Amino acid sequence: MNNKKVLMDISWSNKGGIGRFTDEISKLLCDISKEELYRKCASPLAPLGLAVNIFLRKKTDVVFLPGYIPPLFCSKKFIITIHDLNHLDLNDNSSLFKRLFYNF
Q1: Which residues lie across from 6 on neighbouring strands?
Q2: Which of 85, 83, 87 is nearest to 97 (CA)?
Q3: pLDDT confidence of 50, banded at 50, 70, 90?
Q4: CA nearest 76: which of 63, 94, 92, 59?
Q5: Assigned domain for 11 exists
Q6: Residue 2: its pLDDT value, please?
Q7: Which of 15, 17, 57, 63 would you call most buried, defined as having the most Cβ atoms within 10 angstroms of its Cβ?
């Protein structure tokens, strides 16, 4: 069997619903060879920082992102999780800044 090296972004760990998902999925993936990536989640520079971190990890095959912010660019295959989209449909659930961010 060809084992893949998975890089998992755990920056959301212990932070609300996404954090719970991150913690639980991390437990389920314990048999997979994974490397954990720590970063500041939801920072305006997070997509760029994430892309640089991924690029520097040459031995990673797949990147798993339990959060909702993809890297600005990515040199590896990656999996991103979509959690909730009601803020895109209902303006009352989002600020102007958030709407601009999500439409970017």
Answers
A1: 34, 62
A2: 87
A3: confident
A4: 63
A5: yes
A6: 67
A7: 63
Handedness of CA 27, 31, 80, 8 (dihedral sign): positive
In a domain, 45, yes or no: yes
Q: Which domain holds residue 36?
A: 6-103
pTM over 0.70: no
Number of domains in the chain: 1
**Which pLDDT tens digit goes with each residue over 51-81?**
777 777 777 888 888 877 777 778 888 888 8
Distance CA 37, CA 51 (A): 12
> What is the length of the chain?
104
Closest by Cα among 55, 43, 50 to 9: 50
Residue with tokens 């760990």: 13
Instruction: Name the maximum alpha-carbon separation found in the chain.
Output: 49
Minimal CA–CA distance to 11: which of 47, 56, 58, 62?
47
For 78, list phi and psi in degrees, rounded to 5: -140, 155
